[in-house]
Amino acid sequence: MTISVSPAHILVVDDEPDLRTLYELTLLREGHRVDTADNLQQAQALLATHHFDVVITDMRLPDGLGMSLLHHIKAQGREERSIVITAYGSAQNAVEALKAGAFDYLTKPVDLKQFRAVVTSAIRSVAEVTTDTAPSSRSNVGAAAGALGQRALDRLIGQSDCMQQIKARILKVATSMAPVMVTGESGTGKELVAYAIHANSHRVKGPWVAVNCGAIPETLLEAEFFGARKGAYTGATQDREGFFQAARGGTLFLDEIGDLPLPMQSKLLRAIQERRIRPLGSNQEEVVDVRIVSATHKHLAQEVQNGNFRQDLFFRLNVIDLVIAPLRERTQDLPELCQALLTRIAQESDMPTPVLSKEMLRELSSLPLPGNVRELENLLYRAVALGDGQSLQLDRPMQFSPAVNDSTLDAPEFDLPSPDLSETGRLDQRPDDLQTQLDMLERALLVQALQATQFNRTAAAARLGLNLRQIRYRMARLKIDAPSNDERTDDSL
What are the C-alpha distances in Å from 36 to residues 40, 82, 101, 117? Predict the structure, then answer.
């Protein structure tokens, strides 16, 4: 897909005449105005007298490093987008350039198709920032965001210092192609932050592709990431796109990147460094144009020390880091957050928004909430279900060891049934595989909660820390049927 942009003024800095001419002719054919320089001194003289949209510079020049131009542009607060060209295999140089403020980088030998795509992306970034920062009635950290970008920022609820810093940093990092690593405990909203980066970038009109790296079977990872050609494996009856192809021109969000197996980490590293992928069953590589945003709840630096994560991939993904504070460190956001969650819960249930009393807010503030916002949402779901429609009734969750940080375990105490007795009647008939045992245990817990609430799904869901859709899904998956005469109002929610 060809993306049209307005003609731009571009400076090309390279000491090799043939390459400089090649870049110049390529850009002239695209309709751009081009100036050239073969060293730092000439480039700085041109920058002193001209305004450019994009500066393209080789890393190594006769009188210094192209990085000097980046520092010069940044120190003067100029708006030019910088693209650095590095030698093949100089991954560290590319990372340093991005950290120094480069919009993007290219690796020699430069692929002209990729060259045009990166330049187009940089020009679009300049144009959109110029448009978005025009005088308007908006203020505060959302001033540079478009309508969609502002909505994405608004979903990050809270006025605490740490939330304001996160929003400001999102707007700052959204304007480049530098990879971003979002870290934080489970339930802190890492995907919301990642999407806000996409929504406030020049790639907002491109696709947003979110991938849970821990949810894909290891045998399918390569095909899922890079695609596959017809006949590449049994059952491949037609060509299929992978995540990289699907995210072309947009953002690829790699959630729980720390769960990616080591063999796939090396393949991902090459794809990110070279901007090329090879689908399964194909003899040719494809150029890909995606921005990578990753997220993890793990301490990846420690995972590198333990040998579970590649150090070179960590450095490549962690060019810019965004750390989200846990809810216990921003309790001043709790009232606004509770109100937003209660409003959403009430809308889903087609009921008035319940009133959150000061007493309940104090009680919520005293809880450790290791599951963060996700756990808070589960607590409020239960409080709404157990309340009388106007007031809330807080049902404290089970307390787990501090080592357990997963709000999906947020459920009240039950007398755990024996899954093998409830399903088979005999201890010696316990199934060998773990998944079957877990399914049996989950089924027994669901049945117990449903029976205790006379098959009121809303109340049963609340007891288990689920919402209505989640319990319906589990009942269908585990083949739990309600009594035939059960036509309860909770099914209409």
Answer: 11, 14, 21, 20
